[in-house]
Amino acid sequence: MTAVIDQERILVIKHGALGDVVLAEGPFQAIRAHHPDAHITLLTTAPFKTFLEKSGLFDDIWVDEKPKFWNVFKLMRLKDKLVRGRFSRVYDLQTSTRSSSYLGLIPSGQKVEWSGVAKGCSHPHDNPDRGKLHTLERQAEQLKIAGIEAIPPVDFSWAVKAANKFDLPEKYALLVPGGSAHRPEKRWPAEKYAELANLLASQGIIPVLIGGAAEKDVLDHIMHGCQEAIDLSGKTTLHDLAALGTDAELCVGNDTGPLHMFAAVGCPTIVLFSNASDPNRARPRGTDVTVLREADLADLPLKPVVDALKLPVFS
Known about the structure:
alpha/beta, Rossmann fold, 16% strand
């Protein structure tokens, strides 16, 4: 009688934020290709569950409530799930103190291979300079240690297929003038975006604004300054961002999550950095990405941005 072999069970940990999840798409694809017949579970946070379910890369997606360490009930519930998961290997792409601690929730008798930075793990990414690497290079190096040699080009076609349709002009540009409310130093001034919006409109490229409730004041300022602009703030899903980036002429924005998606789907992308973040570690990646950096973005003039777009608005 032929013995029944249990299906390999893999856990991938990746919480977010959006830019981090976009940058993890290639590693997600590489893990699936390396374990084509495995049952792969993703442990992520709630904002990304519905989005990543459409990818077809995971057999199950769990939402990590990220319980406080004093919340014994929730920790034990998470421990029970990890134990019952019977995982033979874990790829911890979050590599945070929290995610590393999850190795300790799995009994030592339940042998599990662990790729990450958790103390005592089987496949440690122990490069002392890992914190200086861009996220993609860091994850590629981590996966190579675990036996995955290459990260494929990202494919977000599944997200585009799941997107809503917006009635937009044939030529439009995406502007992302916001970002974290608690990080205003990462924002280019709203009046500069309004000037840029008007210049784009004068070239027959309609500016389309992307953002959320936290950016309402900025978006209202731009809409007031450019009557041709279209406001899609609060109307887009993560799938929509992929589709919008696929069809846009270009995009300009601050160092914030949507820029990663637009760049990943091939949209010509101009991303604006201040000294508040390091493009060497966290810049969007794509086929056509330009980084402009000024210590204080309030000091970044309009002209370098327009020059980077290669539009004939300055003689």
